[in-house]
Amino acid sequence: MHPRDWITVTRQGIYIEPGDFHIDPLRPVPRAVVTHGHADHARPGHGATLATPETLAIMAARNGGSLDGADALPYGETRRIGDVSVRLVPAGHVLGAAQIVMEYGGARVVVSGDYKRRPDPTCAGFEVVPCDVFVTEATFALPVFRHPDDGHEIAKLLDSLRLFPDRAHLVGAYALGKAQRVIALLRKAGYDRPIWLHGALQNLVDLYQAHGVDLGETRPATGAAKADMKGEIVMAPPAALQDRWSRRLPDPVTAVASGWMRVRGRARQKGVELPLILSDHADWDELTTTIQEVQAGEIWVTHGREDALVHFAKTKGLHAEALYIEGYEEDPADATGGGG
Amino acid sequence: MQRFADLLDGLVTMPSRNGKLRLIEDYLAHAPDPDRGYGLAALTGELDLGTAKPKAIRELAEARCDPVLFYLSYDYVGDLAETLALMWQGPEDTPEDPPPLWEVIDTLMAAPRTRIPELLAGWLDRLDATGRWALLKLITSGLRVGVSGRLARTAFAGWAGLPLNDVEEAWPCVQPPYEPLFAWAAGGPKPEVRDMPAFRPFMLANPLEETDMPALDPADYAVEWKWDGIRVQVARRFGETRIFARSGDDITHAFPDVVEAADFDGALDGELLVMDASGEPAPFNHLQQRLNRKTVSAAMLRKYPAFVRAYDLLQDGPEDLREHPFRHRRKRLEALFGTPRDRFDLSPLIPLNDWSRMAELRDEARARGMEGLMLKRWDSVYVPGRPKGPWFKWKRDPLTVDAVLLYAQRGHGKRSSFYSDYTFGVWRDDELVPVGKAYFGFTDEELRQIDRWVRANTTDRFGPVRAVTPGLVFEVAFDSVHPSPRHKSGLAMRFPRISRIRWDKPHAEADRLETLLKLVEAAPAADGG
Ligand SMILES: [Zn+2]
Ligand SMILES: [Zn+2]
Question: Most buried pick, A96, A109, A132, B177, via CB within 10 A?
């Protein structure tokens, strides 16, 4: 049976009929399989939620500590749901992020969720799984998005600290994934001063540390003396940058760590002084490489700029089509949940 | 090139002046020679590299990129140069090192237009995304990173630890990439303006307040008329003449008659004027006909002949006179221009030594077509800027009329929520005709009162402008009034400002156009300009 006959797109998202479950459903469903903990993928309220233990821990942390119907499936183990066998494989996106590998009726389908290919010290790296149908994300699916080396971007931040030693450096980064990666990259670059955190980041930074990701010393920025944060790195969710919250900082340099920062007009429009091009999504080269490496007969493109990637795939002789699902963050730069 | 690209990249998102200064200073500290000089020149627009048009970029994009992907990307990014810079793909194998900035600039300056696309492609292959963006911005003259010449010079002075005024003075003596400036910063000699027909920063006067007078001894001051033209510096060395306006802008091209007649050697400070048929200075409006023109016609030159009335000598031959007192400079000036030369004469001194006689003379200024009086201390050396004490200007009293508010416009910046720009009119028969526009210079409280009045009396709105019911009278002060075919009333005011709000005055009693017409100074024949 062709996967098109057992995988459908409903109002809730991708539905797997022979297993009677949804992937990353947008609304509450009886049974969900969740790729990763970003809020637009991992919504609460499902009857049962299958995900990696890390993702479930993230969802529980978000949910005030617990999650009803949590059903953990570690990477690499197989589980039968209905007539479908399901396996979770690292996606390299954030801690716990998984591709969902499904086998049914002699066909293997992989739903990538959000992913990236470059190494990230805070999570397991993407694994290529050859398949018949590859459902890929397309957040940065334009050839203008080629993320630079992350060491280069961290060097930019450290260089700015050297140039403006009296100014706090306020780095906007998503609470899940990006914030921890920025801290880890700073540590890797030898930066060993305490990093000051907005309250909204503390929870997940602690969770990462508890999962064995060493992020060094962090301190709460709220309640700290203004003078103490001169020349220091302070991290906050992007939404807090223009907030009154930032007034507590000494003449801050506003930085944002996001793949969207690649386009200068966007950075300027958002009043970002120091754009750091750090993304947890695959860039154009990673997307185009991946859809070729999985050797799938069909590529289904969703979650972003489908048209460019579909066009590219066709020029390479691949069968590709767009899978339009409403509801995931098109532009996570404006949201708190997704990850640029 | 890479460092320059990173600098541009930093500047483009850096809003604060201090932040920009810091970035440029850091660039100067780390970029190699001669790149950093070229970098400065590129920032301030002193390099003319606008050799590639958007069309060339589009063609390059179409030749090297998938057109569907290019236009999808362009649509998203919204900037042609940035789109191509981001999606350009260099060769797979390790590319050559990025080109230094000097190589790019030297090559571009010498290359024929037809070779540009090929050169560009070669460089784009060797640069990273930021470098490619900077290169494409550079050659389409679209840097727009908010760096003025002044800011760049301030950064240079800050980095080199040199006084800004010295840097301002040395700057016009050198060409990109400014090797002598960097040699100077490294401890070498200052590039000397002495040997160049280059700009020397002006010394400026403070307004004389009545309260200043008791403390001043008139005997310490030389007195001259304040002429109603524009202040210029004429520098001539080794046969090359340059005329600079107050701003330091080079306006040589607009005054070929003056340039041609110049036959002295040195640099003078004086008033640029137009002469009337009798050889006397004509009203300002005549000079106006010669300003801000791209080309100067023979008719213009005949109708409005320009000349310079010299009042200071900054350099005589190879000798810089600025460190000498005014008394000495004046003697040297008289020696040079005592006998009038073609298009150059001397601003005479007025022998005066008491305040009351001086005040009488100032009252005559308007009738004599003067802006007022200038007072310069005999012992003053010529220093850039506006030091308090050595020089004063004592301007004639302004003229005033009572005019009626017709339109109000929202201001800018701090005043953007207030109606603070006003168009006012006077009566012609039983109709009010607009005669000028001014913004308010008084207290916040008065501004609020007018703002309230405007909002309560609005009859119509056009964007940021409101028309109001005639009713509010302003006393408008202005320096002079001239015929102007551009205004419905046929008149234009010079330096109008609102001097008083006449809440008490019924608008029917505001002034009439005839009153203003009587104040018009002798006008040049209409020429439609
Ligand atoms: Zn997502
Ligand atoms: Zn995500």
Answer: A96
**CATH level 3 topology of B2-139:** DNA ligase i, domain 1 (1.10.3260)
* Angstrom distance (rounded) from CA A69 to CA A32: 10
CA A134 to chain centroid, in Å, comes to 19
Are A140 and A154 within one domain?
Answer: no
Residue with tokens 């012992």: B379
pLDDT above 80 for A30: yes
Same domain membership, residue A139 and residue A14: yes
Q: Residues near A46 by Cβ (< 8 Å), separated by ≥ 6?
A: A25, A28, A29, A30, A31, A32, A69
| A267 chain-B contacts, CB cut-off 8 A | 13
Q: What confidence tier does A208 reach under pLDDT thresholds 50, 70, 90?
A: very high
Q: Which of B13, B78, B87 sits opposite A267 (nearest CB)?
A: B13
Q: How far apart are CA B99 and CA B107, in angstroms?
A: 11
Where does chain A have alpha helices with state H?
A: 53-62, 150-163, 178-188, 199-210, 264-269, 284-293, 306-315
Architecture, CATH, for domain B399-517: Beta Barrel (2.40)
Indicate whether A266 and A310 sit together in one domain. Answer: no
As annotated, the active-site residues of B are 226
Shared domain check, A254 and A136: no
Q: How many Å apart are CA A268 and CA B510, to the nearest integer?
A: 50
Instruction: For chain B, report the end-to-end CA distance as a whole number of angstroms.
Output: 47
Q: What is the ipTM of this complex?
A: 0.93
Considering only the beta carbons, identify the residue of A148, A264, A311 that sits closest to B82: A264
A305 contacts in B (CB within 8 Å)?
Answer: 72, 76
A340 in any annotated domain? no
Same domain, A302 and A197: no
pLDDT in tens, B168-227: 888 878 888 999 999 999 999 988 877 778 888 899 999 898 888 888 898 999 999 999
Q: Is the domain of A9 the same as that of A134? A: yes
Supply the range of the domain harboring residue A259.
150-276
Ligand 2 centroid, distance to A56 Cα (angstroms): 15
Q: Tell me if B377 sits within 8 A of B221, measured CB to CB.
A: yes
Locate the chain A residue with the closest alpha carbon to B78. Answer: A265
Architecture per CATH, domain B206-395, reads as 2-Layer Sandwich (3.30)
> Which chain A residue lies closest to B9 (C-alpha atoms)?
A264
Distance, in Å, from the CA atom of A108 to the CA atom of B114, rounded to the nearest integer, reads 55
Judge whether residue B483 has pLDDT over 90. no
